[in-house]
Design a protein that fits this description.
3% strand; mainly alpha; phosphatidate cytidylyltransferase activity; 11 helices
Amino acid sequence: MKQETKIRLFSALVVAPFVVACFISYQSLIGLVSAIVFLSSSELYFSTLIKYKKMGIVVIYIGIVSAFPILFGLWFLNFSMELFSVFYIIGISLTLMLVKSKDVIMEYFGIFSISMIYISFNLSFFIPIYKYFGVALALLTLTLSWAYDSFAYFFGLSFGKHKLSKVYSPNKSYEGLFGGIFGTFIYVLVYFYIINNFFDYNISYWYAVPFSIITGIFDTLGDLFESAIKRAYGVKHIGKFLPGHGGMLDRIDGLLFVAPVIYIFLRFFS
């Protein structure tokens, strides 16, 4: 086993149990989401905006995007769009007041928008999934991306020949995509068998098909989006929080696209 693989495995074994343990209560989940938003947005800002040396606005940005999941989950769950609009307008307004250069203002707008929408808002969908559909489906949503990434990596490494995106992620292949979907489908079936037979759930096994397809498509798109950001700024990883994995954002990039779509699916079909 390569040294890098050993480091990745050790890091995952340390972090994964802690993350899963945070699903024990609604409040701890909110804290987890806010903490991950804090780390991911910090990585994004320090990879992109740090060169302008305006620490004040970076700190404000981090505060805004990290506070959103807390207020959203504890007090404003039924007013998600209203709360988001207020936070977003505040961030844009502060940017206009604090950034005085027309040459970089659009970059500040863009990075704040990415952190507010792509990271904070999208990850916060875990909160209504947990609140309205239960801990089992919230935990499944998290582990769907873990399962897909693992199977896609294995199938891509073993059989990958046809490139999925030569520009933004040349290591990804269609073989990895379809292999990842197949592996995720098997994983979901096993997961449903366990929670239906050993816990108080009765989830239809047919959900395994849309869950695995949604994960395969949107996990890949989320990963490609983050890869496009890294290519644009010439960095290999956005952050170094997780040894062997890069940064926190590198670990949740696909999940940020998967969680909202899973929630929408559950709203219409559960």
